[in-house]
Design brief:
This protein is α/β, with parallel strands linked by helices. It is 42% helix and 13% strand. A seven-stranded parallel sheet has the order 3-2-1-4-5-6-7, sandwiched between helices. α4 packs parallel to α5. The protein is globular. The N and C termini lie far apart (37 Å).
Length: 286
């Protein structure tokens, strides 16, 4: 096995973040936190591939349909950022489908010949108490949050190793560090992401591949719009429910997509950090 040299992936002159010229794959990067990650890497000179899909077999509740517009929006994002002189490409992929993931990584290999950073930024949720939850519901949420992390990581490893190492950043959640009622399947999957991250970090440490997780707290994305519908109390508006949620945060401030992007940038560049789960939740998991 190789040891990680002190000069592995050195920063380019003037590139204080270490992302200039890197090839970065963001799976689930069309909207919300994923979009913020794409933009953050792109403005720092990375060559970014944003992968998303218009069909998700594992998603239903937060999107109200198995038909989504992820790849369509990813294409629009790539066009928008490319018009600003940034290097962003949209490719279609469903992280829960192994053949789709395999094809995605093969295309990246053909186009760029390397891969430096992988960000698994996707996730789905569903609300149900365990007593009435169907096995199919449980499996959909696990597939949409955990299985995809496994598949993308597995098929990205050959490219990451080939260039001397790189970084994988997986999206877990505050729900991967604390349990919450009526989302046991989501918590199980997100706890699983942290366990998977730690194990893969140990496996790949000598290959120069670092693996970390980011654990977002409360951010007003499509997922939380769905959760507000589920958790709003009788006589309470959605906005009132959202403000009530603020009380769960020690800092009494909601996180923003850019907060998560900053954490991802750090984890992707921090050459001596691996196997960690970084909470960006205003102190919720303290």
């Amino acid at each position: 096995m190789n040891t990680l040299p002190d000069t592995a992936h050195p920063s380019s002159p003037g590139d204080t973040d270490g992302h200039q010229g890197r090839v970065v794959l963001v799976v689930g990067g069309a909207k919300g936190m994923g979009r913020a990650v794409v933009e953050a890497f792109a403005v720092r000179g990375a060559r970014v591939v944003v992968a998303d899909t218009n069909t998700l077999s594992s998603a239903y509740n937060q999107y109200r349909s198995q038909r989504v517009d992820g790849f369509t929006v990813a294409g629009e994002l790539a066009e928008e950022l490319s018009a600003k002189g940034l290097d962003v490409t949209a490719l279609q992929a469903d992280a829960s489908d192994e053949e789709s993931v395999r094809a995605l990584l093969a295309e990246i290999g053909d186009r760029y010949g390397r891969l430096d950073t992988v960000v698994n930024a996707f996730g789905v949720t569903h609300v149900s108490p365990v007593a009435t939850m169907e096995l199919a519901e449980f499996n959909r949420v696990v597939e949409g949050n955990l299985s995809g992390v496994f598949l993308v990581s597995k098929h990205a490893l050959p490219l990451l190793r080939a260039d001397g190492g790189g970084s994988i950043v997986n999206f877990s959640s505050v729900s991967g560090r604390s349990g919450f009622a009526k989302v046991a399947h989501y918590c199980a999957a997100k706890f699983g992401v942290i366990g998977f991250t730690a194990s893969l970090a140990l496996e790949e440490a000598r290959n120069g591949v670092r693996v970390n997780a980011v654990c977002p707290g409360m951010i007003r994305t499509a997922m939380w719009d769905y959760l507000l519908d589920e958790f709003t109390r009788p006589g309470e508006t959605r906005d009132e429910c959202w403000e009530r949620m603020r009380g769960m945060i020690p800092q009494r401030a909601f996180q923003q997509p850019q907060d998560i992007a900053e954490a991802v940038l750090y984890l992707a560049a921090a050459r001596r950090v691996t196997g960690q789960a970084l909470g960006v939740d205003g102190g919720m998991s303290a």
